[in-house]
Amino acid sequence: MYGILMRQQTERISLMKESEIKEIIQAQRLFYRSQQTKPLGFRLSQLKQLETLLRDHEEVLCEALEKDLGKHSSESYMTEIGLLYHNLRAAQRSLKRWSRPKKVATPLFLMPARSYITSSPYGCTLILSAYNYPLLLSLDPLIGAIAGGNVALVGLSEYTPHVNQVLFEASPKYFSRDYLHFFESNKEHNTRMLQERFDKLFFTGSTTVGQIVLEAASQYLTPVTLELGGKSPALVTAQADLNLAAERIIWGKLLNMGQTCIAPDYCLVDESIRDEFISLLIAKIVSLYGENSQASADYGRIVNQRHLGRLQAILEKDADQIIFGGTVDQKDLFIEPTLIQGTLTSDLGAMKEEIFGPLLPVLSYHHLEDALGYIEEQEAPLAFYPFSKSKPEIQQIIDRLQFGGATINDTILHLSNSRLPFGGVGHSGMGHYHGRYSFEAFTHQRSVLERTNYFPLKLMYAPYTHVKDKWIRRFLK
Length: 477
Prior knowledge:
Elements: H1 2-14, H2 18-33, H3 40-56, H4 58-69, H5 73-99, E1 102-104, E2 113-121, E3 124-128, H6 136-148, E4 151-157, H7 161-170, E5 180-185, H8 187-193, E6 200-204, H9 207-218, E7 224-227, E8 233-236, H10 242-254, E9 266-270, H11 274-289, H12 305-317, E10 322-324, E11 328-329, E12 334-335, E13 338-343, E14 359-365, H13 368-377, E15 383-387, H14 391-400, E16 405-406, E17 429-430, H15 436-441, E18 443-451, H16 466-475
Parallel strand pairs: 3-4, 3-6, 4-5, 6-7, 8-9, 8-15, 9-14, 13-14, 15-16
Antiparallel strand pairs: 1-2, 2-18, 7-17, 10-13, 11-12
Helix pairs in contact: 1-7, 3-5, 3-6, 4-5, 4-7, 5-6, 10-11
């Protein structure tokens, strides 16, 4: 009964008419033009409000994440709520410094003058998030939007109705709708929203939808940040610590049941250590989630039947290559941790698209050069995870390949450092955020050169003479 009620409430909230969409956007634009969002004090107060909302609803949000994704409360805190607290506190501590004009040198021929860069909010922003980390992927960009002095419309995935309902009901108690408004992100809504003019678009999701967002943004030449995905490889060389690599790859792969944009999508392993490494992978799965992972309270669930069906189709195609796992329970939205064995030339269904689930292809290679060439032939991944005890080997690998970000000898963790920019390249995205980079993603860097009212630069004015030309050439060389 509770689930039915939640769906009914979400449907009522989600059915926004086109006139209502226009009304909200216009109200937010007017509020932004009132200049209220720009003072440092206001921005700090709104960041504090967001933190308060989270702390007041932490328990119910953890319950909602369990209902929507089967997440254990510890995992919800570690991968979403705790990271948001950390990033909110960092933004509150640092915003004054981030907002300060940055002085830069002025060339001698422009003196007397001073030059500096200011950060200006874009204005009316649209944030479209994804279902796999519904809090982190909606509120983390929002931290940047608030810190930058913008107003925001935030789309929450239709696949996480319980999380959405908490934010729909809670947010009006903390924020004016003219300043911040949450809505359900679905195909109908997004199509309507993308027809409107925004000053900044921030999208997290698939490359296919990202291309649609980018095309829509081009109508108004709206700046866009795209946080997409792709097939992020783990590369295990013959010089790796195999026990450590197996444990860390399995942890990163099965976190949130593989529904993580930077999860190790597949693993390349030197053929000389393949069998030993596969045995270790199996041992680590059992160590983390037991012999029966379906009974483990720590193991999540696939978000819905549609995505489970997609993964099940991969399992059916690659059935002959499955060396561990493969069990599916449709009613429970459960897929057992699964290892699929192959080589660089195998025609695996699991290698045709981003997996986004608990299936790990393990592909053996003969020479390291073969593995690097294989990765180079694919689209640039969002993340990359090389494992080796040899620093020269790691440096060779890192220098050669293109990727969004990397964790060396581990997985996932580069995302957790808010001092590092997070983002993809090419098909895995454009732009980056986290920490100061979130602030910069939602602000325009303005160049300002301030001249005095004295000493006009008549050297540059017509009529031009031989003497003027001589001095111009002396200054500009």
